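We store chain and fold; thus.
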Amino acid sequence: MSHRLLTSMASLTAIIAAAFLMPAPVTGETWTVPRTADGQPDLQGVWDYRTITPMQRPLELGTKEFFASDEEAAAWERSENRRQNRDAEDLETGGVPPGWAGGGGGVAGRAAYNEFWWDRGNKIVATKRTSLIVDPPDGRYPAMTPEGQKRADLIAAARNDTNLGRPHADSYEDRPLAERCILGFNSGPPMTPGAYNNNVQLFQAPGYVAILNEMIHDTRIIPLDGRPHGHVPLWRGDSRGHWEGDTLVVDTINFKRETSFPNSGPNLHLVEKFTRTDADTLMYEFTIDDPSVWTRPFTVAVPMRKSDQPIYEYACHEGNYAMASILAGARAAEKAAEAKASK
C-alpha cells in the first residue's frame, strides 16, 4: 500500500540542512528541550499519532474522563480491538462481535479491507484519557448550530443516491476529496488519528516550519515572521505560526468550502499547538472554532510519539486511475435501474 518516499523536497533541502541539530544531552533525570541553531525548541523528526482512543468519549463511559487503572484501560483496549477487527466476521454465518465496526452482513457486507491493511494502532493514549476531545469536559462534540446541522444533512444527502442505494456519482466533483487524492482523511489540518498512515514529519529552519504528512504526502510550509494572512481560500487553509514560550502555535484560516474536518467550511478558524514534553513525546493540540457550524469552540489533544522510521509515500490512485471506472459504474447502475423500471 505504501512505497518509500521518492521525492527529495529539493526546495527545502538547503534550509533544512542548516537547521538539524543533535538533541541536548540529558543530565541526571532532568530533560531539557533541545534547541535548533536559531534557539527555538527542536520539534523535528517523524512523529506517530496512531491510537484507538476515540475522538468522542463513548456514551457508555458517561462522565469518566480517564480510565481508573491500567487494568481497566487494558480491558477496554481488548474490547475495542475486537470490535474493530476486520477479520472478526464469520464469512459463512455473518456473525460478528457486538457493535462490530467492519460492515457486517455476511460476505456481501464485508469491510473494504481486511485487518492486514489497517494500522490504526491498538493502544489508548498514555494518559488513559477516554476521548481525544478535552474540552468540552464531557469529551463530546458540542451541539451544532441549525445552520451547521443543515450543512451536515446536505453533505450526507449529497454523498448518497437514495434511489439507487449507492454513493452519489454524477461527476468527479461529487466524490470525496480523499478519494480524489486532494486531501488525506487524517492529515488535515487538523491531523486526526485514522485507519493508517498516522505519521507526520516536522522540519525547521530560521523563519519557517514545514509539516509533511504521509497521507497524500503533502507539505505545509508555515512562515513564522509575523506576516499577515493572505486572502485566497486554500484546501488546507492559510497558516501562520509563532512561538509562545516552547510551544509552536499555528493559526489557520481561509479554508476552501470543502475541508478535511467533518462538516466544517470556509468559516473555520483552526489553532494548532505543538509542545515537546519529553524526548519521545510531542503534544499536539488543536482548537476548532467555526461559529457557523458549532455552538462553541472545542479542543482536541493528541500525544505523538517519536518514530525511528522514515516517512513512506502514500500512493493514492483513486483520483487519477479509478475515477473513470467509478463514474462508468454509476452510469451502468442507472441504466440497469431504468431497464428494470421499464419492464
Notes: The first strand starts at residue 2 and ends at 4. The chain is about 20% helix and 25% strand. Residues 318-342 form the longest helix (25 residues).
